[in-house]
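Notes, Module 5: Reading structure tokens.

Key idea: the token line is not a picture. It is a compressed description, and you learn to read it the same way you learned to read a sequence, by spotting repeated patterns. We will look at two proteins. The first is printed below with its tokens.
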Amino acid sequence: MTTVKQHLDDISKIQSKYFIDIGASCSTEHSQSEVLLELGFSGLMFECDPQKFPIQFQKMMGKNVIVSPEKVTVDNILHLLESNNVPDGFYLTIDIDGYDYFVLDKILSKYKPQLIVSEINEKIPAGVKFTVEYDNDYFWDGSHYYGYSLSMLSELLEKYGYKIEELDYNNVILTPGLQVEDIKDVYERGYLNRPERKSMFYYNADFEIVYSLPKEQQLDFIRNKFLPTENERQSRLGHQIDGKKISKRNFILY
């Protein structure tokens, strides 16, 4: 939901004029990366969905961008950036719908993006740290189980020297600096207390009760939501139930 045009002042400070878009998926609408290209940036986009990639590749032909079908993982991301001679200080967009946290951690271990836009799992309440554990075979099954929580991000902020510039519903914007504002206040202002939230994120209605629970009960609620059903436990990875592939559900929650 966050748009590039809302952050033109920050973008103007990016000297490299280069962007990385992981999980681009911009085949059907005017994307953030397209706006950056219009602003004179060049970039590298990753979209591993075999249905979306050819559409996106065709859409980006003639533009100053490389579109790759490579699946980005913790194991290959640094090699991918190095082999494409990516300059440091770039604009980073990451939306993998899965183990985003670990890929972001890996990138920050070597690079210093000047502006980061990352999707979070917005329904996880402030104070709860959650992330999908890294698994190269992970894929999003369309459920609530994906990504990481805003509070989980606090560890990376401290480790690498970033701050939350803004939370816009399910997108967090990070810039280099010291995190001063409390994560809970950021979450309430950027998602929980916004008047349009319930109508825009109607599919999160079954999570609504979690915000009124004490911490330990919140953890139990989320754990029960994310643990596989008995039907899923009896199926092997890659099998299907009701037409949907079943993935392992390993996560960190505290």
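Here is the second protein, with the sequence above and the tokens below, as before.
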Amino acid sequence: MEGKGLEISITPEHLFDVVGIPVTNTLIASLCATAVLVAFVFVARRKLAFASPRGIQNLVELVVESALGMMEEVLGDRKLAQKVFPFITTVFLFVLTANWMEFLPGVGSITFAEGAHAVPLLRSVNTDLNVTLALAAVAVVLVQVMGVTVVGGWKYAKKFINLKSPIGFFIGFVELLSETTRLISFSFRLFGNIFAGEVLLLVMSYFLPVLLPVPFMLFEVMVGLIQATIFAALMLIFVKVAVAHEEEH
């Protein structure tokens, strides 16, 4: 499907190679999202005040304390919440920034010709299934590491390897299968929602480019926030399930 010279593609567009490594428009966009977060942290740290914090520092501290408190409430352990907080928060901020970058000028609109098609230089990061799969892999690895750290390696492994009975073996296999399917559910949920939103905005801008896309853009801003929140919340819940295994068994 095409609109305004742009083709809707489910895969990211290849731009060039660096030392034999293919570089896509979503890779460049992900680097831009990372740069935005690094710049924000750098600016925020420059004006840290321990005696009388004010301005953006107050806002950041409020958000951090609220998020940490929520994680502590879910996990029931302050130290564990402090361990997972940097990872979950980083993933949340990256997903949110990547989602909202879709609305910046130039994303999807700066193009160059490649044959009969116009290829965008920047494309919304989470419309690339490779990115969402990588994020899902990070989430699954974090869950396993926290499970092994809190429960213990052998005790956690018994969740998946149970040779005491055929039923126990089958349950262990189902548990292992469920851990694997999280990669699919994590990645396709985020990819599907963000890709569908991008297609919707492109179609709306094709029919009425001035006013009609605005409500949908506001809707997609909320979708971007909701998807980032859901992704982070699921990571937190799966960590809770992993560390609670010992108590339940």
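Summary for the second protein:
- The longest strand covers residues 14-18.
- The first helix runs from residue 25 to 46.
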